[in-house]
């Protein structure tokens, strides 16, 4: 049975544990908010690349260095830093993105706008974690242990929040920051009210006379701790990036006409006309989802009419229609996963196909319809493609197992898989389990076109092709790079389209004809160059792997073993650099 001292210490231990969990949650929310704030400038991969290491160093420093302020003052300082963080991260991040690369830019910005908050929080958290049982160890060991424990708790909290926090829409970096200001300023005000006479005397001896020293001034002190950070936060919230001018508006020395801006599930979506192009584009964070050239309605008039696509990768996807298939149905069906600005989808609609579109971001579909003249598809599903495909594949398997007649007319002749954004692809849409489900809803003679942006010889391209070949009978690969066949640069980022089919019949493309061009120059140009833009499978897999199915199976991506996200880090960095050549730096700073 525990003695009196053990019983008396239990409430203190429980209080410390509760305070530790609450503070670790606040710090984790701050970390998430700081990274969300930098996504429009650097993207998710570059922003998070070295943040974990920075966090560890800061937690160790916060635990090891002496404290110069008490908990109440540290919380007040945290709330003030949280209040100014949105503007600080935006302005420093914009400057750093112009001067530095996508690795050092986020680090420099986080050192100014995020790390001081983490340092203060880690210092307080270390005090809370100083449990009596640890006092038997050397103080230096205790500090290091508490620093590592703080880092582990905060990092784990970060991961839980990224997995479960519905970012986008109402939950943005700015909304998180104002919530955190309220929480920390409330905590500081509460500590000011409940401080004991002994604590005030101790504080007075350390700091000298204070106008907050008497009990009569405690409400005033608490009010100051609470109101000053909140007032500052509300002032910051009415400035960019938390608040932008009413759309439409001109920016970047009148070279950019911003038409609409939306915070959505995949990031910050911006529709704008780049007048020096001139072209209209859709942007999600630091990645272009597509665009169209602007042309004058008549000679001598401003370029205000939508023209052809600024990217050719979408045109290559349309080449699925050119695959020679046995007994095609009268009205073929196409499934388009990932709408973007709707270049390929609109072409399929124009050709009279039955079109089904899946887009995870409602804002992307809505803005494509509004600003890029996307026609309405026959069916639209605004949800995650993995869940949609899995549900329909499971239903077909269930009917087949129960010997229930299956309507093959619902299968798709063509499936376009274009989910690249922000320098990478969603890994869960490239596993063998996903492709097996997709196979269930594809016609036996149907064709899948999978868009990927990366380098020909990287591990990600190797694994994607190996996984596709494990499901489909055969694949062919094409690129949109402006080079001759056989001279592919091994380290240069390019758009690659994998065409795969379940059929073992000869995999041939017919010659494009006038009706395939839809009166566009870009289609006439690229649809007639397929033979000159093919990439041999051995260029991606290597001659050894292409003939060795055992070795090839080791590269198959599964739900249980999916390193695609890690492999894509380098391509995400290269993609950032490519995007900065597509548009000037000052254009990217407007969001």
TrEMBL record:
Show the stretches that span the lipid bilayer. 12-29, 41-62, 74-91, 103-124, 136-155, 175-196, 217-238
Q: Carries keyword Membrane?
A: yes
UniProt signal peptide:
none
* A single BP term in Gene Ontology: polyamine biosynthetic process
Sorted keywords for this record are: Membrane, Polyamine biosynthesis, Transmembrane, Transmembrane helix
Q: Name the Pfam families on file.
A: Spermine_synth
Entries under InterPro entries matching the protein: SAM-dependent_MTases_sf
Kindly give the PANTHER family that the UniProt entry links to this protein: THERMOSPERMINE SYNTHASE ACAULIS5
This chain's protein is named Spermidine synthase
Question: What is the source species?
Answer: Hydnum rufescens UP504
